[in-house]
């Protein structure tokens, strides 16, 4: 795991006088937006044992991360689709739902299977992660591959801070453009490379 301070060499020279706390916050927010928009931080979620009659299951992302999206799910190796309705399903309706099984993300903390499972099974998933609101850093792979995007996003935020020695709307616009370009490129790269083949699970460890 790389801590936010591991980014400092790429940020501090452009924001003289900025506090470490402000830099950490900007890096965290930038990394969150980058991961949300690119879906670049993909892992295999630990398999979940499905029990007959139980629809909702807790997600267990790595420490300092939360699940942003489920990009693939399967029951006993058979792919299941995400609920694609335009409106949310009420608890009453998904409990009574029939037909082919689907999964319904329930916030960042759990997933719902509908209809209610009639037998035990193994639920496997590929999920996209993002840093948690209190994260102290980011996965090594994301740091090595997408450091520049996160730095641009952080500098964008910092340079838009009012009445600071480093306030610079013109440079902020440049970093905004670079962040958008690099985030889009990462998203395209993920879309091209993402298959149903197993991913190596990446686990973040604290200091």
Layout: helices, strands, pairs:
Layout: E1 2-3, H1 8-11, H2 20-38, E2 42-50, E3 56-58, E4 65-75, E5 78-82, H3 91-95, E6 102-106, E7 110-114, E8 121-131, E9 137-138, H4 140-159, H5 169-193
Parallel strand pairs: 5-6
Antiparallel strand pairs: 1-9, 2-8, 3-7, 4-5, 4-8, 6-7
Helix pairs in contact: 2-4, 2-5, 4-5
Q: Overview of this structure, please?
A:
The protein has 207 residues and is of the alpha+beta class. It has 2 domains: 2-39 and 139-192, no CATH class; 42-130, no CATH class. Helices cover 35% and strands 26% of the residues. The protein contains 5 helices and 9 strands; from the N terminus they run βααββββαββββαα. The chain has helices at 8-11, 20-38, 91-95, 140-159, 169-193; strands at residues 2-3, 42-50, 56-58, 65-75, 78-82, 102-106, 110-114, 121-131, 137-138. The strands form 2 sheets. A 7-stranded mixed beta sheet has the order 2-8-4-5-6-7-3. A two-stranded antiparallel ribbon has the order 1-9. Helix 2 crosses helix 4, helix 2 (20-38) packs across helix 5 (169-193) and helix 4 runs antiparallel to helix 5 (169-193). The chain is elongated and about 65 Å long. The chain starts with a strand and ends in a 14-residue tail after the last helix. The model is unreliable at 196-207 (pLDDT under 50). InterPro entries: SU10_adaptor (IPR056209). Pfam families: SU10_adaptor.
């Amino acid at each position: 795991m790389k801590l936010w301070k591991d980014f400092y060499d790429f940020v501090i020279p452009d924001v003289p006088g900025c506090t470490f706390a402000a830099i950490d916050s900007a890096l965290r927010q930038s990394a969150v937006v980058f991961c949300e928009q690119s879906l670049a931080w993909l892992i295999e979620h630990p398999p979940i044992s499905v029990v007959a009659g139980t629809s909702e299951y807790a997600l267990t992302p790595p420490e300092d991360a939360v699940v942003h999206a489920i990009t693939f799910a399967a029951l006993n190796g058979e792919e299941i689709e995400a609920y694609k309705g335009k409106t949310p399903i009420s608890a009453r309706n998904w409990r009574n739902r029939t037909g082919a099984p689907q999964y319904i993300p329930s916030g960042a903390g759990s997933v719902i299977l509908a209809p209610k499972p009639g037998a035990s099974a193994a639920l496997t998933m590929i999920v996209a992660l993002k840093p948690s609101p209190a994260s102290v850093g980011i996965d090594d792979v994301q740091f090595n591959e997408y450091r520049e995007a996160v730095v641009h996003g952080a500098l964008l935020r910092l340079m838009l801070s009012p009445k600071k020695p480093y306030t610079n709307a013109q440079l902020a616009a440049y970093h905004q453009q670079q962040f958008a370009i690099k985030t889009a490129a990462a998203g395209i790269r993920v879309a091209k490379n993402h298959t149903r083949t197993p991913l190596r699970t990446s686990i973040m460890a604290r200091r």
